[in-house]
Write a structure and sequence with these properties.
This protein is mainly beta. The protein has no helices and 15 strands.
């Protein structure tokens, strides 16, 4: 397991084994060029800023449910005053001299099962359709 302390919190990589059959879109890594120049690619944590969440993503193929891909969260700092957070869908640049209230929390890939709703269409004697 690798760790790096940043101005927004501590990040790790490889703190757990990914489930068998899951594929990583990009391998987790911590690439440190200097104290204020690094790139972290992680599936270990997510970041919450108010109601916004920057998180790794577990994608399950609906046509082949056994095919799952994990897209990581990337944290980059290439100068002393900015950090960029990027996930599969969006990114944000944080100014270190004006950091918002944020939380770094652990993340683990879990598929949440949704309840299926079955609808039955029934025609009554008068020809009207009803959903049940």
């Amino acid at each position: 397991m690798m760790k790096l302390e940043t101005p927004i919190g501590e990040f790790t990589t490889d703190s757990y084994k990914i489930p068998a059959g899951d594929t990583l879109a990009v391998s987790p890594a911590i690439i440190s060029f200097s104290s204020d120049d690094y790139k972290i690619i992680t599936i270990d944590q997510f970041i919450q800023i108010g109601t916004d969440v920057y998180t790794p993503l577990l994608h399950q193929n609906c046509m082949s449910p056994d095919q799952k891909t994990i897209y990581p969260l990337t944290i980059e700092q290439h100068d002393s005053d900015r950090i960029t957070l990027s996930d599969h869908y969006h990114s944000i640049i944080l100014e270190l001299n004006n950091l918002p209230d944020l939380q770094v929390k652990p993340w683990y890939p879990v598929i949440k099962k949704r309840t299926a709703y079955h609808v039955q269409i029934v025609e009554d004697a008068a020809g009207s359709l009803h959903l049940y």
